[in-house]
Write a structure and sequence with these properties.
2 copies of one chain form a homodimer. Chain A is of the alpha/beta class. Chain A has helices at about 5-10, 40-45, 50-55, 60-70, 85-95, 110-120, 140-145, 165-175, 230-240, 250-260, 265-285, 310-320, 345-355, and strands spanning about 25-30, 80, 105, 125-130, 150-155, 180-185, 210-215, 225-230, 300, 320-325, 335-340. The first copy, chain A, contains 13 helices and 11 strands. In chain A, helix 8 links the parallel strand 5 and strand 6. In chain A, helix 2 runs antiparallel to helix 10 and helix 5 runs parallel beside helix 6.
Chain lengths: ~350, ~350
């Protein structure tokens, strides 16, 4: 019996996707962008001077927030920089949820949400998604009825890729009597023809907090940098009270700023990922998988009527040096979540699947 | 009225020391090491490749923990890497303190401790330090009587520099019925002749958690990197459950590892700081200040019987481009906390004080 709280002793920690030891492994399991970060980011890295490391960083990440404000047409007061999107999730729980008060999630979604709730001592109100992984019409009503303080929605959905538009999110936000965190980790990969943009909602809804990350869209998963966007009254307590005083280091601040300045480079990678997403989806459908339309940099492929189950396929792929993600959870345990890689990586995956399944 | 918890709405955030806009300002206010980080750290920085940024970092910081274990003669299971020492403080609160249960501190000490308690909804049990800033003999008894789950002691003391030895800490740890976090942020600057080393205590006491940081000793305040040390049962929940999954980024992991590998470089700076600490203390005493012996990289100088109060001195120094720290708090409001700078910076400070006070 240790010194940790009972809730901590009882819980299981979050298990991140595997980071392989071998450099030749094809990693299609943790939704990294297959293309490298912009050359401007590398230049920013290599120009960091010793004096800058010696001193404390700018505690509020002013330069980054100014740049993010320019990109999104917002004010810096509407933005908070965080040590990876996960930190914003934790900070939202700390800031908006009384210990023990419930947290609302759509089921299934990002498996970290219930872990954060458990750490906080909060029960999780799970609302089952519809077959297409969108929230049911009574999502907000059920969240409200349960007295939830914070509802979490990942959009595009993970692990399915389904996108909700501004009207759907606005309806939910308006109905909810609590904070709605919209986790936009994958928003950079949405089809541009849709002109998808939820940020104007913050002008109408003082309870919507958006999460952005540089991990996927900007190829900077190693850097741990994300940001929160919301109206000033929602951002202020995160920025000035519950955030660790120096939560983002000076190197990360500089590289993240450079990444947003050279957003055009990242945008080229988004289009390449979309092109491959469409090709890989068709190929998987050609292999007989059900694959919902995805606006993310991954596909959820249902494995049915094959010689191997999804779980066995995942295992056999790993033995052949290709990692994909398998979730041993209701509604997901017949599927594989496959990150979109380079054309060569995707070809290798598809060839292996053909071999394993036929 | 916003969506944040009542406790958050009521509280004031932590106010970090000023980060000056001007490069010519002499910063003796936030306890940075005046000397640059090791060349090996800069080399590690400049050799980071794009591919490394693109992928998620090693979630458990294995390489760093292995190196820290080598340095301290411990096992990696006894070490957790954190995004600056402040993160370990927050994680200790989250892990060991039921929301609402009290946290114990010596008063005065690091002003972040009560802020973390307030965020957690925990009352603070404050035990007044003796005149020499050491804990009174009944420190543990009073902490126990108040039902505290986590007691925080900074050693060497901040903002005074007083050092408690292994026997004193062992006595407190043994008496306490809760976790004792010993914040060793400044331990690198302890006089080596004392052979001060508390880490063996973790073999005898399963409730002692040590905090180390690379911010001061290794001149890496900009990088945000620290680590916790304790017996495996104390470290395990921090490492596997309450830590953000990828809490330290890949650049920070590599630079921190390089810094520990080239510890000899940092040790040279520690001796230079100690030499100056002794010289500046004598000079301040020569100016009529009471200055307790300090084992940190700062001095607490009591300003009494001068033409200017401590507060006014602090203000006038700032107007002349020299920042020192002033705390408007009982027992500290007649003093200045002065970080040890380079000999030239210290000379400039001493010259200004002579000018202002005589």
């Amino acid at each position: 019996m240790g010194y940790e709280r009972n809730a901590i002793a009882r819980m299981h920690g979050y298990v991140p996707g595997k980071q392989p030891a071998s450099a030749t492994t094809i990693k299609l399991n943790t939704n990294e962008n297959p293309y490298p970060p912009s050359a401007a980011v590398m230049q920013a890295l290599h120009s960091v001077q010793a004096e800058v490391l010696r001193r404390y960083p700018e505690p509020m990440a002013e330069a980054f927030r100014a740049q993010a404000a320019r990109v999104h047409g917002l004010r810096p007061e509407e933005i908070v920089a965080v040590n990876g999107g996960d930190e914003l999730l934790r900070m939202a729980v700390t800031t908006f949820v009384e210990p023990g008060a419930p947290i609302g999630v759509l089921e299934p979604s990002y498996s970290l949400y219930p872990v954060l709730a458990e750490i906080h001592g909060s029960p999780v109100v799970r609302v089952d998604a519809r077959d297409d992984f969108s929230p049911p019409d009574d999502f907000a009503a059920r969240i409200n009825a349960a007295g939830v303080s914070l509802a979490l929605l990942v959009n595009p959905h993970a692990p399915a890729g389904k996108l909700l538009g501004a009207r759907e999110i606005a309806t939910i936000a308006k109905q909810l009597r609590c904070v709605l965190l919209v986790d936009e980790a994958y928003v950079d990969f949405v089809e541009p023809a849709l002109c998808h943009d939820l940020l104007p909602l913050l002008r109408e809804h003082d309870n919507v907090l958006f999460l952005r990350t540089l991990s996927k869209g900007y190829s900077l998963a190693g850097l741990r940098f994300g940001y929160g966007i919301g109206c000033e009254s929602l951002i202020a307590p995160l920025l000035g009270k519950t955030r660790d005083s120096y939560n983002v280091d000076v190197v990360a601040q500089r590289l993240a700023t450079a990444a947003l300045v050279d957003r055009a480079s990242a945008q080229l990678t988004w289009q390449r990922v979309r092109d491959e997403r469409s090709r890989v989806r068709s190929a998987l459908q050609g292999l007989g998988c059900k694959v919902p339309e995805s606006h993310s940099n991954f596909l959820l492929a249902e494995v049915a009527g094959k010689r191997l189950t999804a779980e066995a396929t995942h295992r056999e792929l790993e033995a052949r040096g290709v990692l994909v993600r398998y979730f041993a959870m209701p509604r997901l345990d017949q599927s594989l979540r496959i990150t979109i890689g380079t054309p060569e990586q995707n070809d290798r995956l598809l060839a292996l699947l053909r071999e394993l399944w036929t």
